[in-house]
Amino acid sequence: MSLPEVARHDLLVVRRSLLLKAVLTVLLAAPIGGVLVGFGLGTEPTFRFLLLSMWLVVGGTIPLVGVLAAAPAVAGARDAGRLRLLLSTPTERATVVGGVLCSRLLLVVGSLTVGLCLGVAGLVAVVPQVGPGRLVGFVLFTLLMATAYVSLGLAVSVTVDTATRALVGSVALFVGTLLWPQVASVLHGIVTDLGVAVPATAFQVLGRLSPFGAYSQVISDTGAIYGVAVTTPLLGSGVMATVLVAWATLPLVIGTRRFARADL
Amino acid sequence: MAAIRTAGLRKEYGPVTALHDLDLTVEPGEAFGFLGPNGAGKSTTIDLLLGFATPTAGRAEVLGRDVAAAGGDCRRGVGVLPEGYSVFEGLSARDHLRSICRLKGVDDDPDRLCDTVGLDAADRDRPAGGFSTGMRQRLVLATALAGDPDLLVLDEPSSGLDPTGITRLREIVRAAVDDGTAVFFSSHHLAEVEAVCDRVGILNDGRLAAVDTVDGLRDRTGGAERLRIELREEPDGSVLGRLRRVEGVVDVATDGREVTVGCRAAPTKAEAVAVAVESATVEDFTVSGRSLEQLFDHYTGDESPTAGNGAGTAELGAVTETAASRGESE
What we know:
The complex is a heterodimer of chains A (264) and B (330).
Chain A: H1 3-14, H2 18-41, H3 47-80, H4 82-86, H5 93-126, H6 132-159, H7 163-193, H8 200-207, H9 211-219, H10 237-261
Helix pairs in contact in A: 1-5, 2-3, 2-5, 3-5, 3-6, 3-7, 3-9, 5-6, 6-7, 6-9, 6-10, 7-8, 9-10
Chain B: E1 4-13, E2 16-26, E3 31-35, H1 42-50, E4 57-62, E5 65-66, H2 67-70, E6 78-81, H3 93-104, H4 110-117, H5 133-145, E7 151-155, H6 163-178, E8 182-186, H7 190-196, E9 199-204, E10 207-212, H8 214-220, E11 225-231, H9 237-244, E12 249-255, E13 258-263, H10 266-279, E14 282-288, H11 292-300, H12 316-329
Parallel strand pairs in B: 3-8, 3-9, 6-7, 7-8
Antiparallel strand pairs in B: 1-2, 1-4, 4-5, 9-10, 11-13, 11-14, 12-13
Helix pairs in contact in B: 3-4, 4-5, 9-10
C-alpha cells in the first residue's frame, strides 16, 4: 500500500535475478577499474590523470547500467502481466513508480557508493597528492549522474508497454545523451560555416544540457574531452548540478503522470 | 451500498466501442456470473471496475467508492483474480502472499490461504516460476482471498484448474457468499457459473443482453424445464388436473403413459414428481431443459434456428432495455 512496501516487494523480486549480479559487479568494479586504467595508460599518473581515467570508465559504464537497471522494471511487469497482480492491491500507480525508483536507486546508488569508496581508497593509496574538494565533487556528481540515469530508465519504462521497447528506448537515450555534447559542437560548426554569429558559449551550454554533458563538464579537466573553460556561470557546477537534478526528476514526473492515466 | 454499480459505463478504443453504456448492479453477498463470448467486453468491464482503464463515459462504483475518484483506493476491500496476470517467478507462494498482504495492508496467514486454495505444503516455499498453470491459478486465487475481502472479482477463475480445483473453487465462492462477500464471476465455463451464481449477466458485443437468475432467463425465453414422467397406466383427468395445479407448472401434456410437465423452477419439479407419486404409479422420470449454454447461445445470437423458440437477434434490443432498467431499479 505504501511506497516502502512496493520498494521492499521490488527488492524481493530482483534479489535472485541476473540483473542484480550484473549491476553489483559493474558498479563495484568500475571505479577501481578506472584507477587501474589510469595506471595502464601512464607510467606515473598524477591525481588529475587518474581522476580523468576514472571519469572515462565510470562515465561510460554507469549511465548504461543505470538505465538498464530501471528500464525493464515497470514495462516488463506490465508486458508479462505481473503489474496486474501488483495493482490488484489498493496500490496507486504513482506509488508503484516511487517504490520501484527507491528500490532501483538503492541497488544502483548503494552499490556505486561502495564501488566509489573502493576506487577513492585505491586512488588515495597510490597518489601522494590528492585534491579532496575535487574528489568529493567527483563522488557526489557521479552519484547524482547515476540517480539521473536510473530515473531516466524508469521514465522510459513507465512510458512504453513492453520490456523490449523499454530496453531499446533507454539504450537509445543513453547513446543520445552520451553523444549530445558532440552534436552541439557539430551544430556550432555548421552554424559558424553558414556565417551566423552565435557565441560559442551558447553551444557549449547546449552541449552540457545532457546529463552526461553536465557530469563531464564538472568532472573532466578543462580542455580535456567534454570539459570546457567556465567562461559563464551557466557552465559552473551549480548549473550542472541543476541540469542533473532536472533530468532525475522531470522526465519521471511526466512519465508517471502519463502512466497514471494509461489503460493497462 | 451496492458491491458494484455502473451507470452508462462506456469504453471506446478509437473507432471501436468495447462497452456500450453498461448499467449494472451487484449486491453485497451476491454471486454474479458475468458471461459473454470472446471480445464481448467482459475484461474491459473488469478493467474499468478496477481502475485499470479509464472509461470514455459513465461511472463505476465499487463498494460505494467512485472508481475514477478513488484511484487505487477503489480496490480496497476487493480481492482480484485478474485476467492475463503473471506471477513473480522468483518468489515462493509464501513470499507472494506475504508481499500481497503487505501491499493490501492486511494481516493474513499465508498458510491458511494456501490451505484454502489447496496449495500443497511442499510447494509453498519453491519459486512460483516452476508452478503449473493450475498451481499459479490457485496461488493468485489465494492472493485474492487475502484479508477476507468484501468483493471478489474473479476473471476466468477456473482456467487451468483440474476437477478437484474446480470443486474447491465452487466451495470457496459459495463460502465467501455465505459470509456476505459479493462475487463477480466472469467465466466461459457456463456450468461453473450456473453452479455458483445467484444471477448472471450476459454481455454480447459490448452490450448487456440480459441480466437475471438462470431460472429467470429460462422463463423469459420460454425455456421451462421439461419433466417427463412415465406411469404404469395411462393417466386420467384427475392426475393431470392435480399436476396442472402445482405452482410453477407451465403446461401438462400426455402421450400414452408418458406425461410431460413444463416446470419454471427447481422446486416445481420436485413437487410435480411428488404429486405424480401420490396420484399414480410412477415407473420412471427424467428432466430436460434449456441449459445455461443454450440460454447463452440464445442471448448472444448464436442459437441455431431449430434450437430455440424463434427469438433472434432482433429481440436483443428489447432484452437489453429490460436488463438496463432492472439495473437502474436495483
